[in-house]
Amino acid sequence: MKKWTAVLLAVLWLSGLLGCSVNRGNGPAGEGAPGGRDAEAPVELNMMTFSFAGGGWPQDHVIVRELNKRLNIKLSIEWIPMEVYGKKMNVMAASNDFPDVFLIEGPEFNKWKDKGVFMDIQPQLAQYPNFTKYLSQEYLELMNPKGKIYGLPFYITDTRDSLIIRKDWLDKLGLRMPATVDEFLEVAKAFAQQDPDGNGEADTFGFSFSIVNGKFTNLDAMIGAFGLGNEWIEQNGELIPQQVQTEELKQLLAFLQEAYASGALDPEFTTNKVKDPLAKLEAGKVGIATVVPNEFYTSTLPAIKRSDPQAELVQLIPPKGPTGLQATHTIVNTSKIVVNANIEPAKQQKALELLNYLLSDEGYDLIKNGIEGLHYERTAAGTFKKLEAFDIDRPQLLSVWFFRRYDPEVQIRKWDDPVYVENVLKFYENNAKYRWKNPAEGLSSETFDQKGLRLQEKWMNTITKVAMGQLPVSAVDEAAEVWRQEGGDRIIQEMNEEFQKTKE
Predict the structure, then answer these.
(1) For the segment 294-335, what is each residue's pLDDT rounded down to a tens digit?
(2) Considering the domain boundaries, does residue 83 fall inside one?
(3) 446 lies in which domain range?
């Protein structure tokens, strides 16, 4: 009996050592969730994030089950359509009934970040090292008070979108790739006037853009080239809004007037929806447009090849403005991932453990590519092949709609063609050189929240008429003055007050 007892104790001791050695990540210490697998009952966590086309997962989803197993949790996810997400947040705020861990949009984050709603993650950073290893320090600090981290950043590739041009049209008309705004205009005129598609009709245009919520969309390269800010610009330590940069606006609008009068600019720009300029490129009606690099190879290029098999599209580097400035479409997503400050500490730690794990090698691979053997498989050649279940289960939704590394390859899968990957990353590499940062990103103004959209639409109404030649360029001065008098000056004051706080 003593002999068997000794053997049993030795086995139990050895099992304990093996159990303690389990690491939830597949990298070095700190990659996965801290500690070993718990023998205790799973911790219940509820999460909320937004959803788009197709909606989110059903509750009993294979990735949720996998996370539950790996992290000893019982996770439930509420997927809220993006168009009603803000309303949902306001209802929760009224009853002070927030989820355990959730995504929140920038304006609401700013409104509640000092109200005791969100857990301060700063003291926990040493315990969860993936937050500083795989997230940008710049965006970790964005909108968070000095010395505190109430929210983790929702990363997007800030210089993702790119200009694209019909190289076959350039070649047919004997034109060079435009390198300046003047050359851009001359090429755009030729695309409109010299029948580049060879059908004998005047039915093509050089470029197009849209106006959405009173703002130019898909015109970033031109706006930045003429010295205008990306909504705001910093001059001598002060924030200046685009609406009052009258001299730079006059140069841009003189450019647009000439483009519109010559036919180089799509005359339907005032009624275009966001995607219309790209749709017109795909239909062979526009020669220059803005594309998403990933979608360019999977959607845009196949679409234009169907209408014109000889079409050739290449990236267009942002043209230089009169003073040599170049700019590419640059945005920062101000949404944050937060942990409820008012749940019990055990739940808070599990929520942080989950977020830390999603950034680890093992966790990130799971939410990007799914489960090997179910969503993809390894081939005999050592490459990977996507399986049908990937498109059915959509295992990538957490990395697309909730949380991911600061990673330009976030939407590139391990089975993607290496040439496709190289081409997409080349777009990103080129664009990053012309980052056009908005220094006011993440700041808030109460007056802007109340009046900003109405003021912007009124201002843009005048600007649009100038672009179409219906008003003289000098009308820009009056539009700026009206904007300032009807609330703009107050917006400038409030934004600069917030801006100075970031420097303290």
Answers:
(1) 899 999 999 999 989 999 999 999 999 999 999 999 988 899
(2) yes
(3) 162-329+437-501
